[in-house]
Amino acid sequence: MNPKELNSNDPVAWCPGCGNFGIREAVKRALVELELEPWQTCFVSGIGQAAKAPHYIRCNLFNGLHGRALPVATGVKLANPELVVIAEGGDGDGYAEGGNHFLHALRRNIDVTYLVHDNQVYGLTKGQASPTSDSGMKTRTTPSGSRVPAFHPLALAVALDGGYVARGLSNRVAHLAALIAGAVRHPGFALVEILQPCVSFNRVNTGQWYRERVYELADEYDPTNRELAFDLAREWGERIPIGLFYRSSRPAYPLPVPAAPPSGDTFRFLLETLR
Amino acid sequence: MAKVLMKGNEAIAESGIRAGGLCYFCYPITPQSEVAEYLSRRMPEVGGAFLQGESEVAVSNMLYGAAGAGVRCWTTSSSPGISLMMEALSYIAAAELPCVIVNIVRAGPGLGGILPSQGDYRQAVKGGGHGDYRCLVYAPSSVQEAVDLMPLAFDRADRYRNPVLIIGDGMIGQMMEPVEFREQEFPSLPEKNWATDGCKGRKPNVVNSLYLNPVEEEQLNRKLGEKYARMERDEVMFEEFNTGKPYRALFVAYGTTARICKTAIKKLAEEGIDVALLRPITLFPFPSERLNELAEPAEFLLSVEMSMGQMLEDIRLATCCRKPVHFYGRQGGLVPSPEEVADEVKRLLGSAKGDR
Predict the structure, then answer these.
(1) What domains sit in chain B, N to C, each tagged with a CATH number?
(2) Nearest CB to A142; choose among B33, B40, B111
(3) What is the average per-residue pLDDT within B55-84?
């Protein structure tokens, strides 16, 4: 399959230069690498610019409520364990409105992949401070700078022994695609936090800002070392690591096992009875 | 004071501050985020509190807390955000706490759209949260009226110890009009001796809405019921238009659609068709008594709403269906034009003739 075959016909409503384009490309490449046909995957999203992303990919889509992608994704997965379920949204959607659901999805460790587009600002409502806005950042609702420290999702995920904890960058498409593919393969809850510029409403954390700071975790880095992962997850500012930070061996939340389908004999018996 | 040209959302924000609403909580949502943005700049200048919460659920509970502590507090949001506040609203009403909630209504249900709507009439007027409670509901039809209603809303919230809703639609929030911030005088309010503001030298106050004893719960419900009856007696507000001379039909419309009806009335008058308008300013309490009087000479009533017809039910109830009550509306964020409203009147008058 060619990633282009996964394009949908929906007109794209993102600004030119938005980091979301790179993320969408990485998602499509990951689906191709995983050899997943569109009917095998269900995307679940809430509300925000990032939550529009699944509209632009030709797969099953459940576009639900603001902040509630994870509970909906949990419902989808329990109802249909065979389906690959990918929840997708932004930092406001996932860490503010849906913050509580994020905590409990990590605890529960259900086999759902969660892609969070993090541009450190509310984009859909045009530029208010979000949970990941850095302390001191000026936005439309923090005119003299944000007075609260930024939320660090990776540190939280490692602290809660989250299943698969990774971070990518929107324009490092190949690197990001590999992280997403790894997240889908992981049998448990997988978080891929994706840094991205917002060209319209975040003039601080630009593409260049990220480029100057981001570095990839070394190949020999051991993602089972939780203490080291926690230290790295808190590294933010001058240098920002990306890659797979942590992978837990904790068992995933049990999914229902469907009862065995009727055997050929039973089926014939039923048919004859009904006749 | 001279008039200034302001966007509805910003004018509401400024009026809230001038009314003493110095404690404000918010969560971003279109089409009302400008209220929050304005107040994030303005609140520090007046020594007030501005906080952007992590969700509307959080915001409404912050409101519950601040109201309980006895300060004038408020929030603004839009339809889906208001839905998330309904749980806290029920508790705030049960605990008899004052606060003001502004809903800049957008098209629904569900996520809907971001264009103007009046689809939250039932949620505002009939409940929305659980249990037997009501809110005072004001519906401004201009930016100036929204500005004027803010101090009244805060006063009535304190006076009745009850949440007050202001229902504007996206049009009121987004359009710019000249406004004047007028000083309004109100009789003095009783002291908030119920507030959880520290208990040195007195008995501790308790904010609570749990009554496991059914007799006590019934007492609360009856006490609230009496309060709502007082509102129905004393708080009804409405505007009449063109009711001074004989008319064949009566529009009933609030907010933006009432303005459209006024234009339609002028157009119809040019064609020799006299139509009047009753515009409820309070949606609860509903101006039932005056509506009954004004319905008398009309051949029919026409409810014009940006919904599938929600106030329509209250008009029928108020008039006991003694006159035909028709409905004309647009949905989904579309706003009816004066022409289509006028055409509907002519169509109904034509068919009314046929009926005779």
Answers:
(1) 4-234 (3.40.50.970), 240-355 (3.40.50.920)
(2) B40
(3) 98
